[in-house]
């Protein structure tokens, strides 16, 4: 399903951003593998609301498509996987062991699992044994407060993970500490399954990070917000021109309207704030789009502003 010999590019799960419309767009412009936003196993089991189930859906062009779940209760993880099993178009299930957000950590989920490797292994085994999907993967950090990356990675491998993605910071490092690419390289040399490097990767340093870490793939997260063309830039080695940027932005807008209906234009404002960052007249543009409700008017303004 995933050809790691070609050093594929993954879109990282990004809460509030990597929804179906964005994933469908990056797939058109260089992204190889998409991952859903993080989905709470507890929410899947106890709420099973339309909103939660909607997060499992994929665009027709998302192939391969991985769903990421978070949780720490083994029984609920199993039930959540059984729900995911009913969706035929999902290629793998990823366990989040990297989220540093306090409300997730308080539930002993996300990066908190890095403090309990036996529980981590039990959850991975449960996913592997219960899932009818082809792939089981894990997204980790270097550790919780201290670096323990090799032990964590080996625990994932021993439990049956098919590959891991590793963010080169500890939980304590949040998103501001310097990324330790040498530590990622240590993980890669310590296990046999594919390793994906993650953390502060952009179009300028992507090749260097691949060489430094010797990893099998790269996962792009925050660098894609407002710049989903980053996948195209990494693959082509060239900056995209304004015409392609406009094409991507309009494709994203159209996908939002198709997926969310009329309210898609309101949701899209946060993306337009990112897309226009640093451009001349960006402030006036943002003020204007914040007042527009009509999707046709907004699309015309986007087209003219990014001309």
Class from helix and strand fractions: alpha/beta
Mean pLDDT: 95
Q: How many structural domains does the protein architecture include?
A: 2
State Rg.
Answer: 19 Å
What's the CATH architecture of the largest domain? Alpha-Beta Barrel
> What is the top-level CATH class of the largest domain?
Alpha Beta
* Number of H/I helices: 14
Order of helices and strands: EHEEHHEHEHHEHEHEHEHHHHH
Poorly predicted spans: none
Output the CATH topology of the largest domain: TIM Barrel
CATH superfamily of the largest domain: Aldolase class I
Q: Give, in spatial order, the strands making up the sheet with the most strands.
A: 1-2-4-5-6-7-8-9
User: What percentage of amino acids are in beta strands?
Assistant: 5-15%
Distance between the termini: 38 Å
What's the main sheet like?
Answer: 8 strands, parallel, barrel
Got a strand count? 9
Catalytic activity: a 5,6-dihydrouridine in tRNA + NADP(+) = a uridine in tRNA + NADPH + H(+); a 5,6-dihydrouridine in tRNA + NAD(+) = a uridine in tRNA + NADH + H(+)
Domain DUS-like FMN-binding: 11-297
Keywords: Flavoprotein, FMN, NADP, Nucleotide-binding, Oxidoreductase, RNA-binding, tRNA processing, tRNA-binding
InterPro entries: Aldolase_TIM, DUS-like_FMN-bd, DUS_fam, tRNA-dHydroUridine_Synthase_C, tRNA_hU_synthase_CS
């Amino acid at each position: 399903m995933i050809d790691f010999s070609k050093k594929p590019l993954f879109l990282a799960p990004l809460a509030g951003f990597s929804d179906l419309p964005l994933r469908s767009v990056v797939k058109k412009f260089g992204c190889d593998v998409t991952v859903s936003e993080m989905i709470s196993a507890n929410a899947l089991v106890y709420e099973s609301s339309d909103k939660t189930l909607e997060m499992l859906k994929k665009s027709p062009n998302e192939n391969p498509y991985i769903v990421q779940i978070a949780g720490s209760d083994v029984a609920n993880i199993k039930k959540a996987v059984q729900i995911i099993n009913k969706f035929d178009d999902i290629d793998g299930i990823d366990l989040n062991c990297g989220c540093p957000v306090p409300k997730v950590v308080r539930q002993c989920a996300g990066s908190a699992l890095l403090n309990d490797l036996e529980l981590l292994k039990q959850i991975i085994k449960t996913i592997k044994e219960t899932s009818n999907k082809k792939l089981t993967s894990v997204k980790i950090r270097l550790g919780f407060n201290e670096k323990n990356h090799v032990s964590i990675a080996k625990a994932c491998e021993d439990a049956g993970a098919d590959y891991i993605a590793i963010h080169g910071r500890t939980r304590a490092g949040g998103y501001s500490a310097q990324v330790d690419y040498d530590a990622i390289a240590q993980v890669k040399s310590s296990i046999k399954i594919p390793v994906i490097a993650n953390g502060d990767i952009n179009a300028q340093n992507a090749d260097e990070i691949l060489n430094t870490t010797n990893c099998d793939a790269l996962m792009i997260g925050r660098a894609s917000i407002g710049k989903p063309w980053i996948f195209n830039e990494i693959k082509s080695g060239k900056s995209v021109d304004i015409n392609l940027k406009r094409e991507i932005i309009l494709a994203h807008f159209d996908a939002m309207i198709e997926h969310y209906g009329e309210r898609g234009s309101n949701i899209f404002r946060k993306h337009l704030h990112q897309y226009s960052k640093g451009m001349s007249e960006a402030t006036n543009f943002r003020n204007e789009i914040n007042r527009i409700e009509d999707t046709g008017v907004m699309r015309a303004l986007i087209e003219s502003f990014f001309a």
